[in-house]
Amino acid sequence: MTLERWLDSADRVLIAAGAGLSAAAGYDYADGARFAELFPALHRKGLWNRYQLIGLPLPPRLLWGYLSVHVDDIRFGAAPNPVYARLREMAGERDHFVVTSNVDGLFARNGFASERVWTPQGDYGRYQCETPCTRETWPSRPIVSAALESCDASTGETSAVPSCPRCGGEVFLNVHKGPEYVPDHYEPAGRRLREWLGDGVLVIEIGAGYSTPGVIRWPVESLVRGLSGARLVRINRDHAEVPADLEGRALAVRADVAEVLA
User: Which residues are recorded as binding Zn(2+) (predicted)?
Assistant: First the structure.
C-alpha cells in the first residue's frame, strides 16, 4: 500500500487534522442521540445537534449552561481516546508536528507533545474577554466547572455566568469565531511549525473537508506544492479528492480514519 510505503520512508511527518478526525473518534457535532442525552432542555426546544448551536444567540445563562456541558464533555475528559492513541502510535519515533482546526485538545491529551501541536483556531481550554479589553487569555476549566456545578438540567441554564477578570464584561471561549479572537497563546507553536517545515515532509491530512477549507485543506495543498519532495496523503470519508497538479505526490484515501488506522 502506498500509504505504508510513504510512511516507512518518511523522516518527518506533518499531521493536519480537521473535524472529521474528532468525529471519527466519537466527538461528532452532528450526533443527534448524544445531543438529546446531554442537552435535554435544548432538545425539547427543537434543537437536535451541536452544529446548530455554533453562532446561535442564546441568553447568557442558557449559553453558559450549554457550554459548560459541551466543553466538559469534549475537552476535559480524562480517558484516552483509541483513535488518537493509535495515531500517536503511527507517528512513533518519527520527527513529527501537528496542525489542527480542532479545539478539543485531543492531540495533547493522547501523547502528542503540546509544544508540537498548533491549533490556529484556538482551544476550549482557554477563554478571553469578548471586547477584548486585553490580549491576555485564561484557563477555562475553573469557569466551566463553576457553570457546570450550578447548571439546572431541567432548564439547561446556569447561574454561574463568567465575566472578564479585567473589565467585568462578557467572555467567551478562546476560539476563532470572529474578529475579537485573540490568537496570541497559539502563535509560538505556529512559528515553531514554520521553522520545522522542510523539503521531503510527508503530510497526512485527516478529516479536513470543505466546511472551513482555508484552515487546513487548502494551506496543506499549497504547502506540498511549495516544498521539494513533499507528499500528501488525504484521508477523508467524503472528500478525499486531491488536486490534479499533485499527481504522483498525493494519495487519496476515501475511508473512515478509524478504519485506516486499524
Answer: 129, 133, 164, 167
